[in-house]
Amino acid sequence: MINHEMSARLAKASQIAAQAAELALGYFNRRDDIQVSSKKVQDFVSQADVAVEQFIRAQLAEHFPQDTIIGEELGGALTDAACWVIDPIDGTSNFLRGSPLWGVSLGLVVDKKPVIGVVALPVLNEQFAAESGKGIFRNGQSFTRDTRFGDVQIVSLGDSSDDKLDEAAAFYQGLRAADWSVQCYRCTTIGMVFAAKGITDGHLQRRTTLWDIAGGAVLCQEAGLETVVNFGSQSIRDLSIAAGTPGLMVTVRELWDLKPRS
Fold it and tell me: What is the CATH number of the domain that holds 23?
């Protein structure tokens, strides 16, 4: 039976994420005044990303000094021990353009397995938190995924500037040929939260990073979706994720070999 009470560690991580979300929302509301630079094509970092990550790191160091930390902006190394993984603002492009579809993601990874995830969506005023085997919470309350209208087949598809376009196009075409409507939110966190909520049947991303999925993967798992995370050769920067309902995953396996990449 699932325990519908947060563990102390999940509760503290949720509190840290909520405070970080408030900080990020402040930057969002005055984003005309923040500094922005480009890491590579269509991959941006803002003053807000760095400030939010610094805040989360300081809080984690205070409350979980024995754990290591990885962040998208300030780096870190993955170990087999407990490691907190931060994406201070996932969906920076959406953030900068004024879209509400961005989030603050915090995950705990142990031995390459995400075991705690907290995702805050500041503009949407929602926070989701989960721990392996203990269920999922929305704004602090036990949450059950919405399974109504399952015959309306919708999937979100992540993209990356590192995608091989011919393979990505073939995958998209295969999903459409199997009668799936495809969404692209330009934010992995949003894709996974919407799947966990039941807005879509799942989220698929053939190339992603650890900070993009560390928080959301646990949400999808605890929402009852089959969730497959594969680490590539570079561990932190070369992952894939497929999270979906049984019906979606049947289609996915016809198009994508989900075995771990070498």
Answer: 3.30.540.10
Q: How far is CA 97 from CA 36, 170, 199, in A?
A: 12, 29, 23
Measured between alpha carbons, how far is 225 from 254 in angstroms, rounded to an integer? 18
Q: Specify the 3-state DSSP secondary structure of 161.
A: coil
- Within-domain flag for 262: no
| Domain identity same for 15 and 130 | yes
Verify that 123 and 228 share a domain, yes or no: no
Number of separate domains in the chain: 2
Question: Distance (Å, rounded) from C-alpha 127 to C-alpha 221?
Answer: 16
Distance set, CA 230 to CA 14, 94, 122, 168, 207 (Å): 26, 26, 29, 17, 10
CB 66, CB 9: distance < 8 Å: no
Instruction: Give per-residue burial for 70-95: e unless 16+ CB within 10 Å, then b.
Output: bbbbeebeeeeebbbbbbbbbbbebb
Q: Are 134 and 3 within 8 A, CB to CB?
A: yes
pLDDT tens profile 45-101 = 678 888 999 999 999 999 999 999 999 888 888 888 899 999 999 998 899 899 999
The tens digit of pLDDT for each residue in 207-258 reads 999 999 999 999 999 999 999 999 877 678 889 999 999 999 999 999 998 8
The model carries a pTM of 0.92
* Alpha helices (runs of H) in 64-133, residue ranges in sequence order: 92-97
118 plus 173 within the same structural domain: no
Give the structural domain span for 225.
154-255
